[in-house]
Amino acid sequence: VSDQKPLGCWSVKHGQIITCPVVCNFETHEYIAVHDDKVLRIWKNKDINLDKVFKATLSADVYRIHSLPNGGPVVLFKGGGVRTLDVLLEAPQQEIENIISDEVIKWSEAFMEGQQPVLLFATEKDGDFFVYVQKLKMNSLCKYKLEQQELSKPLSFTAYIKNQIITLLCLYSNDSVYKVLIPLQQNSEEEEQILSKSLLLNLSVSGSVLKGTSFAVLDKDHVAVLGSLAASGEDSKECLTIWNTKFQTLQTSKELPLGTSGQLWCYEEKFFFTHGKVLTVIMYKCETSSLAAAVGKLKDKQTPDVSSFVNWNTLGDEELLVSFPSQQSAALKSESKMTLRSKRNAVAKVQPDTLSVGQLLLNLKDASTTVLEEELRQLISKAQMPDLQANIGCVITALINRCKTNPKYYPRNFLLHIVQTRDLSYSLCPDLMAVALEKEDVHLLQICLQKFPDIPEEITYACLKVFLSISESYLQRIDVNLESVICYIDIEFNDKEVKTEIVENGFNAELEQDIWETKIAKETHQTADGEFCPVGPQKAALLNAVLHSAYSETFLLPHLKNLPAQQAVLFLRYLYYLYVKCSEKINTTLPGIQSPTISQIMDWMCLLLDAHFTVMVMLPEAKGLLSNLHKFVRAQVRFYSELNKIEGSLLELQRLNHQKDFQTYSIEVLELI
């Protein structure tokens, strides 16, 4: 979320449109989507091409799919028909009944009441609004009509179930929230009933009126409303607000100057909404409602601004730091730049007793270098310290800030120790790699590339450019982790690589020269196109760290196009060397710790060629490299093609061997046809 790096990306063909939100099946860990209203797609994380995944064409248009943790996916059709996904997949073309005739569905939600899935949806027709309650296991459907409100209509709905009663909350255009109670134990055969509503909340305070667009229930006494707060004579401002419905008070609010889409989601005590161009995630915690808390008089000795020392890593002008007083009953804590894709990193929540860390950092602001490092070492050594990850991020930020104010200060060993011994992320300390790049601290950059799961593509490119530009003689004098190269680059005392014979996947390319026109196995060190590594072991280890770094091709390619031509050729030579090395092995896997995989090598090779193909074709020194690369790939393709031809025979041979019970000694001649 923080660095716009997708974990997975799937797209439909040109002209097709995804027509309802994609959901996850909690039971099978599959994704479910509908495009063009009727076409159902189901796939798993490992699937790449959406065209090759499961497809089912349904007989009616789908409005929404709801996924229940213990009840499985439920499909709601635009005509009001409801099916569980399992029932639907048994006969995708089954007829779906049309229940609501000319009504249009405006909102829907699914719940679990015990073991019973319950679907609730609201419809509109000619200004009248209706509510349907569908109990799937009992095949029971109840229809209600909402009591009309003069000169206003519902804009948004939300609901929850408790004690066999559905509480439906409606946000109306007259800036009010109404509550409607619907008993779940209702006879479906009874005639349509009119639901009466009661005023729950008036969205106005001190002359200002909140024009809400969406809202969510936090607990029985609090709701969150996203909308525009307009005061008389002033321009309206979009903001997120928390209201206490018990005491009819505005609990807290936060202005959102970059604007939102008007949509607010709430899941597992976190808000999700768009702010400008980013998705913002805000944690909240609701405490027991009291009058003192509602009017802001709750006694609390803690410092109210909990974010003054916590590095939430905001996005500059694109994202504002969100900080709300902790003494309020619905305290908000910003998590806008958390790396949600990283399962290794603990979520950094701010607890009250971490305030001492902030005070410590403030006290050490003007301390000497020796005192600062000693105090910080003691701080991070506290294994039981709450929110350890966030606090370590604060420690690194304090050190980096000292580096910026004092260019001669750079605690290299201390920073290296922290990164090596703690599971951190780029988002917790975004300035660390920038300073390391400025100092050309390649060892620290190497460890960061290996450890951090969320490095932006711009930083990955910057590391690659620095690694390729540094001279081999300089790299030989510094400490670099060689674990990823030591097992496949053999080094003599004079730093020349030991020449070994290459056999590529069971065949020698030189012996097949007349057929496949390749002589890769006998290239010399000067050409660097064959079995000798074009870079030294230190630079190779650094480049391997880049190959291991996660990236999105869309965001990396524009930066990669700026790589100087000579560096691009050198990098391609190294990638080609790795490709040849992988091809020596039957399992196409390089030995060693954190060695590049064949997929990483191929992906980077394709990416580099996409970025610099025109330059490569024009450069004389790249001509031989491209030619040999082409020949080697062609040899590999033809070799695997030959293997595919005898695949059936080998499988049959394996089957025959399993069927026969060989004695102590036997000779058998098998003819492959």
Automatic annotation (TrEMBL):
Segments forming domain Nucleolar protein 11 C-terminal: 359-672
GO cellular component, one term: nucleolus
Record keyword Glycosyltransferase present: no
Subcellular location, record wording: Nucleus, Nucleolus
BP term (GO), one: maturation of SSU-rRNA
Keyword field: Activator, Nucleus, rRNA processing, Transcription, Transcription regulation
Record's protein name: NOL11 protein
Name of the encoding gene: Nol11
